[in-house]
């Protein structure tokens, strides 16, 4: 079939437009979050908005490089890229720089790079390469195990850094396996484990285990005439009890005090509005003070007087809420929803399983970030350092999300060809 004559041929311009709009609105809010009348030049590279302009410019270069690359290359190099990303994550334990309590960065002069942001698109490529391979069926145990291992391996490496927020993102890719034929029982199991995770934080683990055993005995007697249920009940109990023990150990021995405190505040076991819960309390105040139509650009008092720490990164959404109000926040949310629906539509029109699976990986990762970040700012999720895609300040996250999205845009441009 005829090759593309231009790198821009067959590009989905709606996705490109949504990307540009989100990046530019994000930059405007970063500018508002750190605005100082004495240093208001948008080109001031000592300020975050000046640095973000540099990251935006370099991201544009990355976009052009991706569009120049033959779409077949991404599938051919999926596994090597994935293994290189794993090595970069492992290398942090030796060469990493500790920032904000996590050894998750490589420092190069005045710049720092967070490899976990790039491991996301690398993992998405590996998942797409494996699941999209001819003859691979997720109905087979071996294939399910390999697919889950590809997803969980980077998360396992990231957790001890410690960076539980970045690690959780990879679990969103399990939804992609469900789209490609993974049994709904796994989704049910996942929901059950989430419920158990919450309950294990609220209730003493011994009481919870005894309650599960009691429930298992009741279920056994109800289904005692169906022998096959016996072993399923035993297996489920073993899995759930082991999970409770793991959660209990991880919560008390792996997570740092700041993570434990944030989770305890979220579930109501602690209240510390002037301490560990300060960020969230101030974020909710800033968003609520915006009212219906906001205070206006550069007029947010919570923003101007630095009441909300990390307002240009994790809490960038509260700048939108304060200065643009409910209406502005709704517009931003609608832009993201439009992006997600467009990505799903584009994923469904792919001619190859590799491109389709990769497209759903993009949707899952971006949706997870979007949901958790906004939930953090309004107190519905613990503060775990999840940036808002294309919006939050940071070169690593902007580069990572840009590469993630534009690889898919490039694959979509090749949808009429055989990859």
Please outline the helices and strands.
Layout: H1 13-33, H2 48-68, H3 71-76, H4 78-95, E1 97-99, E2 102-108, E3 111-113, H5 115-131, H6 141-158, H7 164-169, H8 174-179, H9 184-202, H10 205-222, H11 228-254, H12 257-266, H13 278-289, H14 301-304, H15 316-348, H16 353-377, H17 395-413
Antiparallel strand pairs: 1-2, 2-3
Helix pairs in contact: 1-2, 1-15, 2-17, 4-5, 4-6, 5-6, 5-16, 5-17, 9-11, 10-11, 13-15, 15-16, 16-17
Number of helices: 17
Which stretches are low in confidence, meaning pLDDT under 50 for 5 or more residues running? none
Q: Termini, distance in Å? A: 11 Å
Give the SSE order as H and E letters. Answer: HHHHEEEHHHHHHHHHHHHH
Total E-strand runs: 3
How many domains? The number is 1
Class per helix and strand makeup: mainly alpha
Strand residue content: under 5%
Largest sheet: 3 strands, antiparallel
- Tertiary shape: globular
Radius of gyration: 23 Å
Helix content: 55-70%
Characterization of this structure:
By secondary structure, the chain is mainly α. It has one domain (13-202, 255-413). It contains 17 helices and three strands. A three-stranded antiparallel sheet has the order 1-2-3, covered by helices on one side. The longest helix is centred in the C-terminal third of the chain and has 33 residues, at 316-348. The chain is globular. The N and C termini lie close together (11 Å). 39% of the residues are buried. The mean pLDDT is 81.
